[in-house]
Amino acid sequence: MGAIISITDLRKSYDNGFQALKGVSLDIEEGEIIALLGPNGAGKTTLIGAVCGLVRITGGTVTVGGHDVVHDPRRARSQIGLVPQEIALDIFETVWKSVRYTRGLFGLPPDDAHLERVLKSLSLWDKRDNQCKELSGGMKRRVMIAKALSHAPKVLFLDEPTAGVDVNLRRDMWALVRELRASGVTVILTTHYIEEAEEMADRVAVINKGEILLVEDKAHLMKRFGRKLLTLELAEPVTALPAGLEGRGLTLSEDGAHLVYGYDTAAEHTGITRLISDLADAGLRVRDLDSEKSSLEDVFLRLVEEEQA
Ligand SMILES: Nc1ncnc2c1ncn2[C@@H]1O[C@H](COP(=O)(O)OP(=O)(O)OP(=O)(O)O)[C@@H](O)[C@H]1O
């Protein structure tokens, strides 16, 4: 599959001279879910705004579906559905009329069959004649998505789709995004919940201070940066690491009852077999083992901290 969005050396300086994007290049493949992660002020909203034609770019090029956002903004924008973070609905309007109206804004003729499919896929069909003010917060969010899909865009931007949403609704939203992808829509989401990126994204782009630090397949990323911690519970606590076991990446807990061993998941040899046998030789009996994987959150924090250092 080819790139549906192509961003090349994108620069944005605001009128006060602040450089919010410093030469961002990124290709987004058709049909993928890509998560944009970055701390507050990293440039995520500016980047989305530039692709959607809401922010005037000061350098570089962006094409959506082959259409340049500066030279052919209407065609480029027609490929995109944007779901902003804040819910903005005419609360006295019915769901059906809101969605129909938004489609009209794109200069498209009515297509009630398409809108019916969209509302059904979002479990809003039964609510079509309700005024927006009669809907729950989760339903209002889904109406925002229905509006963004009303002109059948190829690309959907979700800006913080589950900010302030409870766990159940968050899971519903994840299922919905997967369904959208299955229907061929490319999804770009920004999120502060790294768990969300870990759960959903095919690829992750980390952005900081207006620059892309990394774009990588999520599975590769976890493998490349991921670490595992193995905790060994000792049958009898010790006061110090036995001689010969220093310098092996082992840490003794304060109570002397646990040894923690950190290793790279990508390493060819983890050294665990050797470690266990060396512990036995040193007279330490292990009662139990526990292992935990570093999360995408650890990877993200490490990356941003390294950049800050
Ligand atoms: N209109 C503007 N004029 C000047 N500076 C701006 C303007 N809009 C944004 N900025 C600055 O550009 C930088 C990037 O902002 P942006 O909103 O893109 O970040 P973000 O990654 O979306 O942050 P958040 O996660 O907090 O939403 C910030 O330092 C911000 O203060």
UniProtKB/TrEMBL annotation:
InterPro entries: AAA+_ATPase, ABC_transporter-like_ATP-bd, ABC_transporter-like_CS, ABC_transporter_ATP-binding, P-loop_NTPase. PROSITE patterns: ABC_TRANSPORTER_1 (PS00211), ABC_TRANSPORTER_2 (PS50893). It holds the Pfam family ABC_tran. CDD domains: ABC_DR_subfamily_A. Residues 5-234 form the ABC transporter domain. SMART domains: AAA. Keywords: ATP-binding, Nucleotide-binding, Transport. It comes from the Bacteria. One of its GO terms (molecular function) is ATP binding. SUPFAM superfamilies: P-loop containing nucleoside triphosphate hydrolases. PANTHER family: ABC TRANSPORTER ATP-BINDING PROTEIN. This is ABC transporter ATP-binding protein. It comes from Celeribacter indicus.
